[in-house]
Amino acid sequence: MPRQKKQLAFLLLFSITQSLNYSITAFAAVSKGSSQSLDAASANQGGGTSTSSQFRQQSSVGEATAGVRLSSSGFRIIPGFLGASLSGFTGVVPVSDLDLTVLYARAEPVGAQLSPATWQRDNDPVFFWEPPVAAPDVAGYSYGIDTVPDNTVDTTSLSLNIATSGSGPWADGKHTFSVKAINTGGKAGAPISIDIWVDTTPPQIVTYAPSPGVLINTLAPAISATVSDVSSGVNKLAVSLLVNGSTTSVLFSEATGALTATGGAWHEGPNSLELRVADLAGNTQAPLVWSITRDTRPPTGLLLINGNADITTSAYVTLGVTASDATSGVVRMLLSNQEQTGYIEEPYVAIRALWMLTPIRGIQSVYVKFVDQAGNVSEPISDQIELALLSPETVITSGPAGFTPNRSAAFAFMCPEGGCLFSFAFDNEAWSAWSSSTSVTREGLPFGNHYFRVKAAKEVNGTEGIQLDEEDPSPAERTWVVGVESPIFTVPKGPPIKLWRLE
């Protein structure tokens, strides 16, 4: 473009600005000549600046004005007002000019910013925003907490302190703060939002085992627990278990909250356990401290039959037992005359009277095992004594057996030693008085199963009456059934079967 045409275009632009009382900002494309180029030109009412690549000029035209702005892709026009508005211009402001672009939060009015959408422990943050750059007629701001802000001005400030606004403290969870600008004409810009995630509650230890004070008898007890945190979640790196002050190996499942631990510096006797947990927001639960007792050593003890006597004439003896356990104490004992036949369990006592030996003359043994409160069972210990029975044997010589239709029963009995007394009982009846009779009859027995017992006794110790060691410790017994035994094979009943043969 010739230089004269460039100057003419610039002067024309300046003249239009002056006559219309406009403030014009022109963004011209770069135009180059043979010796210079015009990069941009601008003229502002109330003192503007005209620039090019070769010269700079400032012109003051009229007074400074204020007004709404109109803009296009190439320029922006600001109508001026010198006592009267421009005839025919409405002055409508684009809503986008009211949009906020800067919003952030701090834990304190002066401090580090809070990271959005990140779990943290501050539940009364302070929010800050900046006014819209292109809207000088802002009347105020509307904000919403977990809601969309309406078109009513809530504040003219550029910040909101939740602690002093009456809107807090916030409950644990995810929250959204939104704010938008509203101008004097009632128009509002688009809201801007920030997410703040609050977690002020430490994780909870829901269950744990073993229970406080429990007794365990394993060398390496297993510890388990369930931990939950409803907001940020449990920090698996902050979960630890101490046994007597020493760290153990811990496995924690973030999916289920299950914790298991093995190993540790365990002691025989009381042990102190301490469980520590924290969540991802940094909330720490007070350590859970409890104690359990470890007892892995069985009791020890001693057994004596009849005070360590060598011989007895009665099948009933007295057992003297002595047992001790250093940690949990002895609570039960297991007794037997023969290990192969099993043991019977009884509470632990120092004197067990009337224990019945196997009623066979000769050397008899008794075995005992001790059980402590933790469940540890000792090895069996035993003692022996010779049994020289004074009591006679009892023999049933006749009487019903098996199935019989006869509802009466007659039994005869005897003792090989001779001169015995006898006592008998049918079914669940009590023992009869001692008598020298060697037979007994019972009539009218009901149909069904029946049971007969008889025992012999003989006066041998000079004490009046029959003593326990003078009666047969193993009575003779007989069972039978009153009724008719069902046949194994049954012949079907019905009309006779005819057989036909074809000749």
How is the secondary structure organized here?
Blueprint: H1 3-19, E1 22-26, E2 31-32, E3 37-38, E4 41-43, E5 48-51, E6 56-59, E7 70-71, E8 75-79, E9 103-106, E10 119-120, E11 126-129, E12 138-145, E13 159-161, H2 162-165, E14 173-183, E15 192-198, E16 204-209, E17 215-216, E18 223-228, E19 240-243, E20 246-247, E21 249-252, E22 258-262, E23 269-276, E24 288-294, E25 300-305, E26 311-312, E27 316-324, E28 330-336, E29 344-347, E30 351-356, E31 362-372, E32 381-387, E33 395-398, E34 402-404, E35 409-414, E36 421-426, E37 439-442, E38 448-457, E39 476-482
Parallel strand pairs: 10-15, 17-24, 26-32, 34-39
Antiparallel strand pairs: 1-4, 1-8, 2-3, 5-6, 7-8, 9-11, 11-13, 12-14, 14-15, 16-18, 18-22, 19-20, 19-23, 21-22, 23-24, 25-27, 27-30, 28-29, 28-31, 31-32, 33-35, 35-37, 36-38, 38-39
Question: Can you walk through the features of this model?
Answer:
By secondary structure, the chain is mainly beta. It has 5 domains: 3-92, no CATH class; 96-198, Immunoglobulin-like; 204-294, Sandwich (Immunoglobulin-like); 300-387, Immunoglobulin-like (Sandwich), CATH 2.60.40; 395-482, Immunoglobulins (Immunoglobulin-like, Sandwich), CATH 2.60.40. The chain is 4% helix and 40% strand. The protein has a 5-stranded mixed beta sheet, with no helix packed on it. A 5-stranded mixed beta sheet has the order 26-32-31-28-29, with no helix packed on it. Strands 4-1-8-7 form a 4-stranded antiparallel beta sheet, covered by helices on one side. Strand 14 and strand 15 form a beta hairpin. Residues 1-93 and 489-503 have low confidence and may be disordered.
